[in-house]
Amino acid sequence: MKIIGHKWIESPIFKIINNIEDINKTLAKDILLFNDLDKNIKIIKYSNINNLPYAIRVKDIKEAILSHNLNASYILVLPEMAKEIQDIAQNYLFDTLVLVEINNEKEIEYYAKLGIDGIIFSNSIKLPNSS
User: Fold this and answer.
1) 4, 43, 55, 105: least surrounded by Cβ within 10 Å?
2) Which of 36, 42, 43 is closest to 60 using CA atoms?
3) Structurally, how many domains does the chain consist of?
């Protein structure tokens, strides 16, 4: 299980991206985060062309599958869809990791038992001009 943002573990920061200018405000170690697949598709394609690692928040199974096919490094899924999307990711051998956003480390065990690829603490998600 991948753990991002725990105080004991060195992790990248996920930076919310709304436009290409936001990318210029990130560090090389940051992961770009797109909150809307449809709205951000042009910037996602730009990120692919420039080999920039990124994550996409997905609302449903279709978006999860599309994000994997767009070469997203990570997908952030809704807690209520985590198990279903993880099962699909396992079945199709996604390279994309399925993450669930959490606020409390007590949730780690719950998602580990579900077999989710990883969790990300909310404090690891920031705007591009913050550190």
Assistant:
1) 105
2) 36
3) 1
- Alpha-carbon distance of 64 to 85, in angstroms, equals 7
- pLDDT of 54-80, one tens digit each? 999 999 999 999 999 999 999 999 999
Q: What is the pTM of this model?
A: 0.94
Cross-strand pairs, 98: 75
118, part of any domain: yes
Gap between the Cα atoms of 37 and 69, Å rounded: 12
pLDDT for residue 32 is more than 80:
yes
- Residue 111's alpha-carbon distances to 12, 27, 51, 89, 120, in angstroms, are 20, 29, 30, 15, 11
Show the tokens assigned to 42.
């042009």
Distance CA 14, CA 7 (A): 15
What CATH number is given to the structural domain containing 104?
3.20.20.70
What CA–CA distance (Å, rounded) separates 6 from 74?
17
